[in-house]
């Protein structure tokens, strides 16, 4: 609640938590320090105070006194207490709702893409089998050895397309669930990447040792994380980034919503590189099969990784800007423990 000079008169405990500051500190701060009060917005607040007309703004950016940026909806309502006039500002945080909507959309898009790929793979593999079989029969009938080169080309290309379709479908076997340690998995990935790059890329580790073991498929998880870290490594190499570095960070997070489901405890793995970032053109489609930002990329690595993490009831998100790309991999822990019991 603001007075006529736009000074803070009152803030409830919920707003103190949202703005990450105590009431005393908020009283000492200027409203412009925490409210999205640009010159225009300051004029709107004063106009609302003078005219008595309320207004509402959707998805505004608010910066807390701790420096964190939030997305909020807020409404400004003039009111009288006795003969004194105030402005009552009601703030609704939107970040969590927006994240839930984004994650549900991501899961829906990925499920749709997987369904489309499965249908397409079925339609491709059937005629491929016929083509390959016919080429083998034709090869037996041809007495001229030089003509066998042509049938071998047909057979080899049919096999190549079949392998491509199999890769599009991702892991073909059901997960072999055992107790796994996320840090053992990450260290295995580090050793593979280090061997590939011959220690040409710095790998920084920031592990949370409190993360418990959980139930998962070790080999598939190694493949998923390897695909993500290798994607970062290739982006750094292609861009020729100076002092290339990949950070691997693990954290245990509480009360996290993935899609529409809330989880008490989640393992979060972050893969952060200092490369050029991902272009806006493909950012929303990077988990689709055959989408790649590199001319020589297959576009299958991230799609397969997302499928594997989805099988573990988790989700992969990506945030990027020039100089930093951050992949966040979330895997629920309590679900794994419950399934183990």
What's the helix and strand layout?
Layout lengths: L12 H7 L3 H6 L10 H13 L3 E9 L5 E13 L2 E10 L1 H47 L6 H22 L8 E3 L1 H16 L4 E5 L7 E3 L1 H22 L5 E14 L2 E13 L6 H4 L17 H11 L3 E7 L2 E9 L1 H7 L1
Parallel strand pairs: 5-7
Antiparallel strand pairs: 1-2, 2-3, 4-6, 7-8, 8-10, 9-10
Question: Could you describe the 3D structure shown?
Answer:
The protein has 341 residues and is α+β, with helices and mostly antiparallel strands. The chain folds into three domains: 13-93, PAS domain (Beta-Lactamase, 2-Layer Sandwich), CATH 3.30.450; 97-169; 178-340, Histidine kinase-like ATPase, C-terminal domain (Heat Shock Protein 90, 2-Layer Sandwich). It is 45% helix and 25% strand. It has ten helices and ten strands. It has helices at 13-19, 23-28, 39-51, 95-141, 148-169, 182-197, 218-239, 280-283, 301-311, 334-340; strands at 55-63, 69-81, 84-93, 178-180, 202-206, 214-216, 245-258, 261-273, 315-321, 324-332. The strands form three sheets. The protein has a five-stranded mixed β-sheet with strand order 5-7-8-10-9. Strand 7 (245-258) and strand 8 form a beta hairpin. Mean pLDDT is 84; it is low at 336-341.
CATH superfamily of the largest domain: Histidine kinase-like ATPase, C-terminal domain
What is the number of helical segments per DSSP (H or I, 4+ residues)? 10
Strand content: 25-35%
Largest sheet: 5 strands, mixed
**SSE run:** HHHEEEHHEHEEHEEHHEEH
CATH topology grouping of the largest domain: Heat Shock Protein 90
In percent, how helical is the residue content? 40-55%
Number of strands: 10
What value does the Rg take, in angstroms? 27 Å
């Amino acid at each position: 609640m603001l007075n006529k000079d736009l000074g803070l008169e009152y803030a409830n405990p919920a707003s103190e938590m949202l703005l990450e500051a105590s009431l005393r500190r908020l009283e000492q701060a200027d409203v412009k320090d925490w409210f999205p009060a640009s010159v225009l917005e300051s004029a709107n607040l004063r106009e609302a105070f003078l005219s008595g007309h309320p207004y509402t703004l959707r998805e505004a950016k608010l910066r807390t006194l701790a420096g964190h940026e939030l997305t909020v909806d807020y409404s400004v309502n003039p009111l009288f207490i006795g003969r004194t006039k105030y402005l009552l500002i009601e703030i609704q945080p939107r970040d969590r709702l927006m994240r839930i909507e984004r994650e549900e959309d991501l899961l829906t898009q990925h499920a749709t893409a997987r369904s489309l790929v499965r249908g397409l793979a079925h339609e491709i593999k059937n005629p491929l089998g016929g083509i390959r079989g016919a080429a083998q029969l034709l090869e037996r009938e041809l007495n001229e050895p030089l003509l066998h080169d042509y049938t071998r080309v047909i057979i080899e290309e049919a096999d190549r397309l079949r392998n491509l379709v199999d890769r599009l479908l991702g892991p073909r076997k059901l997960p072999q669930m055992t107790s796994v340690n996320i840090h053992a998995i990450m260290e295995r990935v580090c050793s593979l990447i280090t061997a590939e790059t011959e220690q040409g890329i710095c790998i920084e580790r920031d592990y949370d040792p409190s993360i418990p073991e959980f139930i998962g498929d070790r080999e598939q998880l190694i493949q998923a994380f390897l695909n993500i870290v290798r994607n970062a490594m290739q982006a750094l190499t292609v861009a020729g980034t100076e002092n290339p570095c990949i950070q691997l960070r693990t954290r245990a997070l509480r009360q996290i919503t993935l899609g529409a489901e809330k989880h008490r405890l989640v393992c979060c793995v972050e893969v952060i590189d200092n490369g050029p970032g991902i272009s806006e053109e493909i950012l929303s489609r990077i988990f689709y099969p055959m989408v790649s930002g590199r001319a020589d990329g297959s576009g299958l690595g991230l799609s397969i990784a997302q499928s594997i993490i989805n099988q573990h009831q988790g989700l992969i998100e990506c945030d990027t800007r020039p100089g930093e790309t951050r992949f966040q991999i979330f895997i629920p822990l309590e679900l794994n423990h419950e399934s183990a019991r």
